[in-house]
Specification:
The chain has 311 residues and is an all-alpha fold. The chain has a domain of 213 residues: Ferritin (Up-down Bundle). It contains 10 helices and 2 strands. The chain has a two-stranded antiparallel ribbon with strand order 1-2. A hairpin with a 5-residue loop joins β1 and β2. The longest helix has 29 residues. The protein is globular, with a radius of gyration of 19 Å. The two termini are 31 Å apart.
Length: 311
């Protein structure tokens, strides 16, 4: 069975006569408004509504089935997402997240799950951000960004359910903006592919397995099952990043060298893997043996740049 590539199966209608109805859409505050445009919503409008919405409901609205991308517009770089006071991004020094082994402590477990949900919320926003930032890219790239965005919405809901099952609501705890803090350094679609697909998502191939194992160790099979779904999707996200790095890189450069050239510090290969290393999932994503071997030899690093202990 071929690997899943985000964006496959999403509708994109371009025949105006067939879609003359009104469609409800969300404005940045999360309120429902109406759009006429022959009933069809521009992809750019949808992406901007996701980033700028101040409500969680606005971040999770599904794209309309009859979206179009005939007016991608000029590049739009948004430096921060719309957020209510409840979801305001705080400095990392004000939000402490326990290590993964904290799942064993019922008092720490909600904090870890809340942080994981926050990662997914930022991913939703940043894939929408990329649709706005890089309008002059192939239609298949933009469609793929939207496909991943939809899957990130599903991931958020999975974690949100586990947060609520552990006695709190999303937003009851503070959230950081680690992913958003890296957005300002991304200057091109190839850099976005390297940072999101081949660094953050790549590392999640390891983190998700580690996290699911911890959940199963405490017999939290609901959380483990949710993580399994997320892990499966991450393989396709890494494949998407790999394919577009290959598309845009200098033909003379190796994939490894092209990745290094398009991933600014403090990111890089040390942040693209976990303490454990899953070569099999990376092969499923289509990564070359050379790339996998180079990454496996790399010392894993934590967000602060400190070395992670290998397992």
């Amino acid at each position: 069975m071929g690997r899943h590539i985000p964006g496959q199966g999403l509708s994109q209608h371009t025949e105006d006569a067939n879609f003359s109805r009104f469609m409800g859409i969300l404005d940045p505050s999360g309120r429902v408004t109406r759009a006429t445009a022959c009933g069809m919503m521009q992809l750019r409008e949808f992406a901007r509504s996701i980033v700028e919405s101040e409500t969680l409901e606005g971040k999770l609205v599904a794209p309309p089935e009859d979206w179009i991308d005939t007016e991608p517009g000029e590049p739009l770089l948004l430096f921060a997402p719309g957020r209510s006071s409840r979801l305001k991004i705080l400095p990392a020094t004000e939000v402490k997240v326990p290590a993964m082994v904290g799942l064993r402590d019922k008092n720490q477990r909600p904090r870890i799950l809340h942080a994981m949900a926050n990662h997914e919320l930022q991913a939703i926003e940043l894939f929408a951000w990329a649709i706005l930032a890089f309008p002059n890219t192939p239609a298949s790239f933009r469609k793929g960004l939207l496909g991943i965005l939809v899957e990130e919405q599903r991931h958020f809901r999975l974690y949100q359910e586990r947060v609520e099952a552990n006695g709190i609501g999303f937003g009851d705890l503070g959230v950081t903006g680690y992913f958003w803090n890296r957005a300002g350094a991304i200057r091109s679609p190839i850099e976005f592919s390297c940072v999101m697909g081949l660094t953050f998502e790549n590392a999640n191939l390891d983190f998700a397995r580690e996290f699911a194992a911890e959940a199963r160790a405490i017999e939290d099979f609901e959380t483990a099952s949710a993580i399994d779904v997320i892990h499966h999707d991450e393989i396709g996200h890494v494949a998407f990043g790999w394919q577009w790095l290959e598309h845009w890189k200098d033909p003379k450069a190796s994939m490894w060298d092209a990745y290094l050239a398009n991933t600014a510090k403090p990111l890089g290969p040390g942040r693209a893997r976990g303490k454990t290393f899953d070569a099999t999932d990376r092969r499923k994503a289509g990564l070359s043996e050379e790339f996998i071997q180079n990454l496996e030899r790399t010392t894993p690093k934590a967000p602060g740049g400190l070395k992670r202990n290998r397992s």
